[in-house]
C-alpha cells in the first residue's frame, strides 16, 4: 500500500513539474534564448492565473510561431525585437516599448539588434493548460 501511495505521489509531482516546465523545454529547443520564471499566481478570475517571466534573446536568435491560452503583455527591457503577430505586419520594438498579444494569436519574436535583447512577458492565462503551444 505504501509503495502505491509513493508511486502516486511521485506521478502527481512529475505531472505538476512537467506542466510548469513545458515552456522551458520549448525554450531550450530555441538556440540562444533563455527564460527565467519570476512569479506565478492565481488571480481573481476563476480558472485563470498570471505568470511573469524574463526572456533573453542572444544576437540573431528567434523564437518561432506559437500561441498562449490567454493574453501576453510584453515590455522590452533592452535591445531591439521584431515581433510578428499572425495576420499583422511585423513590428519592431526597442527598450521601453510595450506590446499586447491577444489570447490564442500565433506570434513570433526575434532579436534584430546587435546586442542581447530582453523582454518581460506577463501572461494572463487559463490554468492547467500548456503555457506555450508551438505552431505546427
TrEMBL record:
| Keyword flag DNA-binding | no
Q: Where is the Cupin type-2 domain?
A: 55-118
Q: Which UniProt key words apply to this protein?
A: Signal
Q: Which domain of life is it from?
A: Bacteria
Point out the signal peptide segment.
1-28
A Pfam family hit: Cupin_2
What PANTHER family does the annotation carry?
Answer: CUPIN DOMAIN PROTEIN (AFU_ORTHOLOGUE AFUA_3G13620)
Name under which the protein is recorded = Cupin type-2 domain-containing protein
Q: Which organism is it from?
A: Flavobacterium aquicola
Lineage, opening ranks: Bacteria, Pseudomonadati, Bacteroidota, Flavobacteriia, Flavobacteriales
